[in-house]
Design goal:
Strand order of the largest sheet: 1-19-18-9-8-7-10
Radius of gyration: 23 Å
Low-confidence stretches: 1-9
CATH class of the largest domain: Alpha Beta
CATH topology of the largest domain: Antithrombin, Chain I, domain 2
Number of helices: 8
Number of domains: 2
Order of helices and strands: HEHHHEHEHEEEEEEHEEEEEHEEEEE
CATH architecture of the largest domain: 2-Layer Sandwich
Length: 409
């Protein structure tokens, strides 16, 4: 059940702010371990649930969404339509209900067209179909639905995001052996690139410390931002600062304006000999990585507004169905892969209501801005036009250098 919505013209600023705000809040709960998550994948589902909720569940969901519940469904429809207009991004929404569950027509009609399917008591077949939907909608990056059907399942509301962008300027694969930090002594699959665009990197100050942010432009509508903080900063502080940089809420000193010396996390500006007059160069070293993560959204009920909805002793979604419904499961599965040629990522979210010549002759000097992401760092995949954060994550376990030659990630 693929959502066909082709009328989007961009995400409005208010929605970008509330969804990016949810990204920053989710990041604050990130532990010192590798992860990836998509608030953009969660937000529309919360909005549709809020539209059919009542009482405390409705109030909590509205609070998490940052918009009134009565406007939530319209905002979700607009967001899904706008996402469909982002080059390099595919999105889909699916709804499955048990054959005994009757939906309120007003609520069902508020969903995008052609999203609804029905399942019966053959849960094995139903699960296989839903798993296939997840795999198909993410080009196989997420192979199955993050929820498992049970006899208590009456409905599954799911969303899928899959994004891909190829780098405008590919990296060169090499070996990277950090001299200090958590990755010291490891042989990693390093990525190197040199360009004459020093302003792709910048340094920003925050109350928690300085961060370095690098933009890696894709050839589609999606860019990836790598964010490195001071070693004492937490993942949440670094990623939160990254959201501020993306939204241009933080002042950033661009690479071309940085003074000589060590001027930010992982950044060193120096003068180098050159064979001819050259503009300021940007020399980037980072690592290839793949991050997989599974999230239990009910473990953070305050963040997602899902506290009251978990009480299965009462009905919380009368606007969805006259059948009493409470929320039994809410999960997200994510994969993000960063390599020499580009970036791929996908997220499936589901809510389950129950019930390198000759030595050159140097006569000139040039300035080089060197930046190295050789210890844990954050990343943000962003819609270039609206600056909506589509996915975020934290890298702690980069790809090892292959034993036999180099691979193309």
């Amino acid at each position: 059940m693929r959502v066909e919505h082709r009328a989007g013209s961009g995400v409005d600023g208010a929605t970008v702010r509330v969804v990016n705000g949810l990204t920053a809040q989710w990041a604050a709960h990130t532990a010192d371990e590798g992860t990836a998550f998509s608030a953009t994948g969660v937000w529309p589902l919360l909005a549709f649930l809020a539209d059919g909720a009542t009482g405390a569940a409705r109030a909590e969901l509205a609070g998490a969404l940052g918009v009134p519940a009565e406007h939530a469904a319209a905002a979700a429809r607009h967001l899904l339509s706008a996402l469909d207009a982002v080059e390099g991004l595919d999105s889909a929404l699916g709804l499955w209900t048990h054959h005994t569950l009757q939906l309120r027509e007003e609520w069902r009609a508020g969903l995008p067209a052609r999203t609804h399917g029905v399942f019966g008591d053959d849960l094995v077949t139903a699960q296989e179909r839903m798993d296939s939907w997840a795999a198909e909608r993410t080009a196989g990056l997420v192979e199955r639905m993050p929820v498992t059907l049970s006899r208590d399942t009456r409905m599954v509301l799911a969303g899928a995001l899959a994004l891909r962008t190829d780098w405008r300027q590919p990296f060169t694969e090499t070996m990277l052996r950090p001299e200090s930090g958590p990755w010291q002594g490891r042989s990693l699959l390093g990525l190197h690139r040199r360009s004459i665009r020093p302003d792709r990197v910048g340094v920003a100050g925050t109350p928690d410390g300085f961060v370095t942010a690098l933009t890696v432009p894709g050839d589609s509508g999606v860019d990836v931002h790598l964010v490195l903080g001071e070693e004492r900063m937490t993942p949440g502080q670094v990623l939160g600062a990254g959201v501020g940089v993306v939204e241009r809420a933080l002042a950033v000193t661009a690479g071309g304006l940085l003074p000589l010396g060590h001027v930010g996390p992982g950044v060193h500006v120096e003068r180098q000999p050159a064979t001819a007059p050259e503009p300021i160069a940007l020399d980037v070293r980072t690592v290839a990585y793949e991050v997989r993560a599974d999230h239990d959204l009910l473990a953070l009920p305050g963040l997602f507004g899902l506290g009251a909805a978990q009480d299965l002793s009462r009905a919380h979604f009368p606007g969805v169905s006259s059948f009493p419904l409470g929320l039994g499961t809410a999960r997200q599965s994510v994969l993000a892969r960063f390599g020499a040629l580009g970036f791929k990522a996908a997220a499936v979210t589901a809510f389950e209501p129950y019930g390198a010549g000759a030595a050159p002759q140097y006569r000139y000097e040039t300035t080089v801005v060197r930046v190295a992401f050789d210890r844990p760092f954050g990343f943000l995949a962003v819609d270039r036009e609206s600056r909506l954060v589509l996915m975020a994550g934290w890298v702690t376990d980069p790809a090892p250098y292959p034993a036999m030659g180099l691979g193309r990630a």
